[in-house]
Design a protein that fits this description.
Blueprint: E1 2-10, H1 14-22, E2 26-39, E3 44-52, E4 59-66, E5 74-78, E6 83-85, H2 88-98, E7 102-116, E8 119-126, E9 132-138, H3 140-150, H4 153-157
Antiparallel strand pairs: 1-5, 1-9, 2-3, 2-7, 3-4, 4-6, 7-8, 8-9
Length: about 160
């Protein structure tokens, strides 16, 4: 499937959270997440993400995406559906077999996901770097409209 996404660093996630709440977005998840990214020679990446909920069992997910190291605001690329797994050894074996042997990074972040209709907000706070990243993805027309509504939020909230 194709992913259509705006992604950008922000100074604060708070005004975007307020936007979502005010506009009827539902908070789907709020978890600490560990992740690692591996590259293959075919210009794709494998991503292993582990959600660490405050209560309950961690959830391990594997997915694949076209690589894109650009700093472009808008990205359109292929992405697989996520595969939930429990067997680490089997997943590592599959990744090695498919050529995902180049480590491209790892992270620990807090991820909040808000959803309304065809629009998904992913708000990430990276623990080590303290970077804050906003992503809006979904159906192109809806995502473009929402981006136009929020693109100046930081300018409006800075004083």
């Amino acid at each position: 499937m194709m992913e259509y996404e705006y992604s950008f660093k922000v100074k604060s996630l708070k005004p975007y959270i307020e936007y979502c709440i005010k506009n009827g977005y539902e908070l789907k998840s709020d978890v600490k997440q560990m992740g690692r990214v591996l590259k293959a020679d075919n210009n794709t990446t494998a991503r292993i993400k582990v959600d660490l909920p405050k209560k309950g069992t961690p959830k391990k997910v594997l997915d694949f995406k076209d690589a894109d190291d650009s700093k472009a605001l808008i990205k359109e690329r292929r992405e697989t559906l996520p595969l939930v797994f429990e067997d680490d050894e089997a997943v590592e074996s599959i990744l090695e077999f498919l050529g995902y042997t180049k480590k491209d990074g790892s992270y620990i972040r807090r991820r909040r996901v808000f959803v309304k209709g065809n629009v998904i907000f992913e708000m990430d706070y990276y623990i080590k770097s303290r970077n804050k990243v906003m992503a809006i993805e979904g159906v192109k027309e809806d995502v473009d409209r929402v981006y136009e509504e929020i693109k100046d939020i930081e300018l409006k909230t800075e004083n």
